[in-house]
Amino acid sequence: xxxFRLALxxxxxxxxxxxxxxxxxxxxxxxxxxxxxxxxxxxxxxxNIVIRTEAGGGAYWHPExxxxxxxxxxxxxxxxxxxxxxxxxxxxxxxVLVIQGAIYPEATGRMMSVxxxxxPPDQAVVDIPSAELxxxxxxxxxxxxxxxxxxxxxxxxxxxxxxxxxDANGTYDADIGEVTAIMDVENYQIDNGQIWIPLDRLxxxxxxxGEATYVATAxxxxxxxxPADWLTRDITFLIQDVLQAVEADEPYAKFMYAPMLALAxxxxxxxxxxxxxxxxxxxxxxxxxxxxxxxVIGLFTTEGGLHSLLAIILGAIYGAPLFILTAVKGIxxxxxxxxxxxxxxxxxxxxxxxxxxxxxxILVAGVVTVVSYLPSRRIAKMKPTEALSGRSN
Length: 393
Known about the structure:
Elements: H1 2-13, H2 16-55, E1 59-61, E2 78-79, H3 82-89, E3 93-104, E4 112-119, E5 141-146, H4 147-153, E6 160-166, E7 172-183, E8 194-198, H5 199-205, E9 211-212, E10 214-217, E11 231-233, H6 235-238, H7 240-255, H8 257-278, H9 280-288, H10 293-329, E12 331-332, E13 347-348, H11 354-376, H12 384-389
Parallel strand pairs: 4-8, 5-7
Antiparallel strand pairs: 1-10, 1-11, 2-9, 3-4, 3-6, 3-10, 6-7, 12-13
Helix pairs in contact: 1-10, 2-7, 2-8, 2-10, 2-11, 8-11, 10-11
């Protein structure tokens, strides 16, 4: 305790030099926490948006279905097994039929390849405004599309365009579709290159009665062992792209901390070297009075380590309002992330869990303490007589 009080007194007595180091270290602490929270917020948002609008509580896939392989789409359809159909009847799941097709919007003057997805208009499994498909006109197929698809096809509400598809017999057919709703779901995976129409209508057009490509379940629904070679896909599998993207990007995120930590560590290191050089007589006096070298080293290391404590307190004073404000109000994104294949929303809300704050405190305190200890080791080589005379280097 005596060492701590003496170290704190010396630290405060150093004046401007101490507070400059504390200010730089606190800035490093705040930046590390903010960047980590920003990154954590992105992860949470990406997971939630995929679960809420696409994955639900898990899914059952037709054995031929692979969304990453377009050549599997033509064969990826079949009758829904009875056990899964029971969950559909109970409102715990919804079948989705996917076929390949093309649309011809007049505004673009060109044909666009799309995935045509059939969804029950009355479903409540995922957060897609499928009820808008109930507003059907008699002479056109009701179509639900995302904002990016609408922008790409240059269509608006009420616009009509030709839809072409190939049915189960391999015969091409076409009809007119009408945009009944444009959804803003912030999930490009159910937006880009896709149109949604009523499931019964698509089954009839494609000559695939009672068939589906996959069945999505509601959140909280217990997944059963899929029969008839269908594949059970849990949430972890369905969001694996998000998890893999996060895992691949994690080293780069950590690399961002390095410059800030290096800046703080450099300031503390230089301060310690200067302090030991200028206080040689004090060190000699302490050792001449009988203080062990190890305790003198501990005194200087504690002085350096206290920089981190003061920096964390200072950082909390001016950083906490910033963290709370951004976590509540969010940070507006300057661009549409869906266009570049990113699962960002229009605003990103950083997340600052207790583990993140504690980890950042330990990281900053650990680095500062180690950097403080390194120059203090020179004290062990000093002779009290040389230190008192000021001849020790």
